[in-house]
Amino acid sequence: MRQMKPLPRRKPTPLPSLNIVPEIEARGDLKRVYEDTKQILGVPWMGVVTMAFASYHNFYEVLWQGVRETCGTEQFSQACIRLQEYVELRAREIPTTDLSDTLMQQGYSERELGQIMATIEVFAKGNMPYLLIASLTRAILEGHELPVSPTSAAPMTKPTDQLAPLLLVEEHHATPDLQQVYADIKSTLGLPFVNTDYRALARWPSYFTAAWKDLQPHIDTPRYEQILTDIHSKALDIISELPVREGLNTQTLINAAARDTNRESVLRVVELFQYLLPGLITNVAVFKHQLANIHR
Description:
It is a single chain. The protein is mostly helical. It has one domain (25-151, 162-290). The protein is built from twelve helices and no strands. The chain has helices at residues 28-41, 48-54, 57-71, 74-91, 100-105, 110-141, 176-189, 196-201, 205-215, 222-239, 250-260, 263-290. Helix 4 crosses helix 6 (110-141). It is globular.
């Protein structure tokens, strides 16, 4: 791919309206799209980013068919590993408190902490393809040409049935104390929703409250923002090497978006998630570092 013109990390203002159908409510073709996306990516949940994209049915059909083969390749898996390694290295620059001893003093067993860490690992790994897809989508919509895949082989599928289903604490399930944490998350991040990652970790409310309170003061600091900007750039560097199916280009994606709404509306949604995901994956990496000593 030719050298990319800069694609700055930016949060659209005002925020675009989102018409997201939760997994539990998806039916028919939409449910099949959700399940296929999860199967190819090897993740147990449909990310809010792809649910938002899939709300534009024609747009997502063209996009997903153009990247589906790529997302099932070893090259894509290795790209996700590279991105995760970079994120976790950079997240170490954020001062964190080791929460292991404190939580064990509160009564958490090593087994319970291991369950929390296993949940964190699901998101630490599983968020990477979502950021790469968001970055790739924006690049194409902004006029960049990506390499074309030389083959049309069926992608490898990954066994999601071996992954434990995620148990989520929805806002209407939460106790008043946890609702305050959710409100703080939305206020701090400037969002109208609470990401799946946080709702999954809130299954252990005293742990999650401590983890969020340790992280929250670092959000929006210059160091934190620089890390997010660098992760944004790293993802763009990585997707510049990933081939897509022949025929997926700026014009075909714009034409597909026009059958749902228009390029500008879709682009604002894409920009929103490309802006948000570096922060989300950094926060998850911080949560992982907070429990780094549970098996020492």
